[in-house]
Write a structure and sequence with these properties.
alpha/beta; elongated; 35% helix; Leucine-rich repeat, LRR (right-handed beta-alpha superhelix); 244 residues; 11% strand; 10 helices; LRR_dom_sf
Length: 244
C-alpha cells in the first residue's frame, strides 16, 4: 500500500525473478523515500531498465545495484538521461553486456554528477571507455571504482593514471585487464593516487618483477594499505622488491 511504500529507504529484490515485465510493473509504484535499491540477478535487459529510468518512481535514490543482468548500452543510455538519478552516488553494473558506449553515456550524463562508487566489473568498456570515464567531471568525487575484466590493457591503466579524478579514489580494482608491467609503471608514476588505500591487480594482468619493482619504489601511493597481485608472475625478484 502507499503508506508502506512511503517509509521504505532500503529495498533488496535480488534474484526474485522480476524480469522485464516485473520491472515495468514495479516501476509504476512510487517510493519517495527509497535511497537504496538492489535489482541484481533478475534477467533485466534494456527494456526493463528503460521502464525504470522513465518512471520517476524513486526521486531520492542514491544507490542502485543492477549486477548480473542482461543490460546493454541502450539501457545505460536511458539511465544516464534520466532526471530521477540526479542524486545517485553508487551505481553497480557488474556482469552485464556493456561496451565502450555505456562508459561514454555515463561520462557524458548531465544527471550522474554525484557518483562516489562505480562498479562495471566484467563488461567490455575497453581503454576508450576508461579514458572517457577518467576525463569526465562526473567522476570528480569518485571513491570506489571497479573496472575489472574490461579489456583495459596498458592504455586503460595509463588513462586512469593521468586523471585528476583519481585524487579522491580509495578503492581501485583492475583484475583481469592485461595491463602488463607498462601499465603498472604508468600507475606508479601517477601524481593522482594520493588517497588510494586498496589496489587490486589480480588475475591475468601479466605483471612480472619489473611491475612489482615499479610499485615498490613508487611514492605515488602514500595511503596504500591493501595490494593484491594474485595470479601474476612477479617471481622471487618481484617479491623481494615488494618486501623492501
Amino acid at each position: 500500500n502507499s503508506d508502506f511504500g512511503r517509509q521504505l529507504k532500503f529495498l533488496q529484490l535480488r534474484d526474485t525473478c522480476l524480469g522485464n515485465e516485473g520491472m515495468k510493473n514495479f516501476s509504476s509504484f512510487r517510493l519517495d523515500e527509497l535511497e537504496s535499491l538492489d535489482l541484481s540477478e533478475n534477467s533485466i535487459s534494456n527494456t526493463g531498465l528503460e521502464a525504470l529510468a522513465t518512471s520517476n518512481s524513486f526521486p531520492n535514490i542514491k544507490k542502485l545495484v543492477l549486477n548480473n543482468n542482461h543490460i546493454g548500452d541502450d539501457g545505460i543510455y536511458a539511465l544516464s538521461q534520466s532526471n530521477m538519478f540526479c542524486n545517485l552516488e553508487s551505481l553497480f553494473l557488474a556482469n552485464n553486456d556493456l561496451t565502450t558506449d555505456s562508459a561514454i553515456s555515463i561520462s557524458e550524463s548531465r544527471t550522474l554528477t554525484q557518483l562516489k562508487s562505480l562498479d562495471i566489473n566484467n563488461n567490455d568498456i575497453r581503454a576508450e571507455g576508461t579514458k572517457a570515464l577518467s576525463e569526465s567531471p562526473n567522476l570528480k568525487s569518485i571513491e570506489y571504482l571497479d573496472l575489472g575484466e574490461n579489456g583495459l590493457g596498458t592504455e586503460g591503466a595509463k588513462a586512469l593514471a593521468q586523471s585528476p579524478n583519481m585524487k579522491t579514489l580509495k578503492f581501485l580494482r583492475l583484475n583481469n585487464n592485461d595491463i602488463k608491467d607498462a601499465g603498472v609503471s604508468e600507475m606508479a608514476k601517477s601524481k593522482y593516487f594520493t588517497s588510494l588505500e586498496n589496489l587490486f591487480l589480480e588475475n591475468e594482468n601479466w605483471i612480472h618483477s619489473e611491475g612489482a619493482k615499479s610499485l615498490a619504489v613508487s611514492t605515488s601511493f602514500p595511503l596504500l594499505r591493501i595490494l593484491v597481485l594474485t595470479l601474476n608472475a612477479i617471481g622471487d625478484e618481484g617479491a623481494f622488491h615488494l618486501a623492501g
